[in-house]
């Protein structure tokens, strides 16, 4: 093992960062490790994301610091807030709000296990509300020139009580004004990445719209009806050649949906950026229209 897989969190448990003491590991990914900590000064639990020295490269350090700086400039109820940033002898770190809940990915996996088939998906209104909140947060970030570029269920935390989605992991986010040629590699999650992102072309807010389009489809169905594929590379190849990823439309996969949803998702996930919604705000307006037409007032 190497890099993040070989990192032993016991090395940092008990470490004090300011008035916070690291307690235990919460999650880890390609961009670092997230741990729970207790902040003595304010008597609260917080989260700490660290980049261990074993992962240090010029690129990883840049992305880690970029994430903290990008999120620090944002203040939105559906985006996890950053508190502080610093460097210890064996790792770089930043602290943020600890979201009490679970990832959207974990929540969807649990729902899919329901013994009653009709309850293996979220209620349509709940799915639309979550998608609208995510789009609202992204629209806010885009107005401040930050694109996320890695929207997926694993990077959405859902609060335990109110079930509010909170966007996390801006690890590969960038300022809209930064050109794509400054990115050394195409990063992201194959299923949710826009084709232009895969190809390393210049990306903008429409890449996030694409990801939310796929995410919306996932929220509305028990399982995404993907084309047959043996690997993530096959999915990537299908995207960059303009082929559809899905064997059925949302309304075919979930009879409770109107065919109007098919057109909405198809536009959001069009291979050509110019054919998608011009912004997350436009996408949000389309969802509002669908909800008014097919579900009525709350």
Give an overview of the whole structure.
The chain has about 300 residues and is of the alpha+beta class. About 35% of the residues lie in helices and about 20% in strands. The strands form three sheets. Strands 1-2-3-4-6-5 form a six-stranded antiparallel β-sheet, with helices on one face. Strand 1 (about 15) and strand 2 (about 20-30) form a beta hairpin. Helix 3 (about 125-145) runs antiparallel to helix 5 and helix 5 (about 205-220) packs antiparallel against helix 8.
Task: Please report which band the strand proportion falls in: under 5%, 5-15%, 15-25%, 25-35%, 35-45% or over 45%.
Answer: 15-25%
Q: What's the Cα radius of gyration?
A: 20 Å
The whole-number mean of residue pLDDT values reads: 90
Oligomer: single chain
Number of helices: 9
Number of strands: 11
Briefly note the structural class of the backbone.
Answer: alpha+beta
Helix content: 25-40%
Helix and strand topology:
Blueprint: E1 16-17, E2 20-29, E3 32-39, E4 44-52, H1 58-72, E5 82-88, E6 91-97, E7 101-103, H2 104-112, H3 124-143, E8 146-147, E9 156-159, E10 165-167, E11 174-175, H4 195-198, H5 205-220, H6 232-240, H7 250-253, H8 259-268, H9 280-294
Antiparallel strand pairs: 1-2, 2-3, 3-4, 4-6, 5-6, 7-9, 8-11, 9-10
Helix pairs in contact: 3-5, 3-9, 5-8, 8-9
